[in-house]
Prior knowledge:
The chain is α+β, with helices and mostly antiparallel strands.
Amino acid sequence: MPQHQPTLMEPVLSYNNGNGNNSDYDVMNWFEDLSQNAGFVQTQLLCQILEQNYGVEYLKKWLGSYNILEMDACALESLFSSVVPLASHADFEPFMQRIADGDTTPLLTQQPITTLSLSSGTTEGRQKFVPFTRHSAQTTLQIFTLAAAYRSRVYPIREGGRVLEFIYSSNRFKTKGGLTVGTATTHYYASEEFKIKQHKTKSFTCSPQEVISGGDYKQSTYCHLLLGLYFSDQVEFITSAFIYSMVQAFTTFEELWREICNDIRDGTLSSRIKSSKMRKAALDIISPSPNLASKLEDSCKELEGVDWFGLIPKLWPNAKYVYSIMTGSMQPYLKKLRHYANGLPLVSAEYGSTESWIGVNVDPSLPPEDVTFAVVPTFSYFEFIPLHRHEKKLSSGGDDFMEDKPIPLSQIKVGQEYEVVLTTFTGLYRCRLGDVVEVASFHNGIPKLNFVCRRKLILTVNIDKNTEKDLQLVVERGSHILNKASRAELIDFTSYADVSNQPGHYVIYWEIKGEVEDNVLGACCNEMDKSFADHGYVVSRKTNSIGPLELCVLESGTFKKILDNFIANGAALSQFKTPRCTNNHVILKILNTCTTKKFRSTAYNNCSNEQ
């Protein structure tokens, strides 16, 4: 056993000694120490999880006959991976439901679970329960503190400055068994750790808790913008959970800036804000500021003339960077955010899920397209299923990957793709996350991961298999034609594999801002159809076993209707991700009701005639 044993949890929670840069050095030192011993740390972490939760009902079936408390750490790790099966959320759902209904026996954890998080539901169309414990809030504080230390090396900020945070809580409710349920972000924003984070990272949010937890995202967004501009000279950086929230906020600002400026001038608050708690909290902060209002009005009139290009540095002149999750399904919004940012650095936030945080961005100067995430080995026990791409459709896997047996973090290799598997302190054991990642490099002994795609977000009709990443590339090709031929802008998109009639075909839905001629949209449709490079798709299109791609153009505001439906079902704006591929009946009804024009591809017509 190594003589030096890195401490798993405490340093990041207590490192801050009040000496500014020294504390940044301490937390990075702690992480560098961990990175030298990642395999050992992971083995010890798994032992800690199993020793804490030994005897719970879920594990008894496989570990009940073993005295794991007497076992060597490496032997226990080997036993665990050989006898406890891989699982999905479906395997945990019956236990989660019993916990929600008030069953207090140790089902998943020995410690009682009193709080449940709701996953976003945008991937599979329904929300899932995930346990939320003090450990969940602590690891969130840890990763934010660690990430802030790495960012401060590249983009130092003024101590005591402010952060414009477009963050939102949803309403929490009680289950039949009395457990509190809400989104993970809602629980975190209400926790003591959220307050501690502001002190540890030396930056304070512009908006009070009453705005964050207001429950109506439109009212909260207005107040975020108002208070962010009121403190505009103090704002050091701008952030949101996902860049979607930020782009939505700035799009809203384009419409409401005059009203916001009037409120700043007079020290008043728009009648849009109905919440009495939110009104009081905001009005307690602002006071009449006619000079600031005039300055902002002049800037906004200038920005209107250039289509709001450079909005962020113009209105927040001391902002050092923009910080948010920008990978995966968020990448399509980068173009719009760069338009607003005009060269201000975009820093991609950390990699995680409702189940667990996974990796930290230790290279914040990299553009979002190139970002990697160094796995933090104290958050969960990580396993990785090696994935190999296969051109033929596999009946077993349901996608274009062949799988090998899972391996521990210490055995993964650069250039290989994997699916992430988690064992957590909160009662998930060998749970498949569904994320495909690629190992880009190593940070000492810790892998740095590229997020590739979600396994389940796949378009398929026949032998074809197209991932979310494939779809994004195709839409980029189509929107390039749109941008060249008009001043119109693609606002958002999603897709659907329609197999209601034979042959089945892909449907891509576009919401566009601006006027576009039909011949241009037809060309966009053709370009997308022929841009799918998957061999199964190309062959199927040539033989007409997949029909022509369909482009549906949506009326303005369609994706806001989808967002409103999502939030009406209890989720928070902070969680929202537009599903890039959907078979959700409610979403499809909104999309089809709001379709104003349809185009069918003619890209493969000559091929069909030659058959």
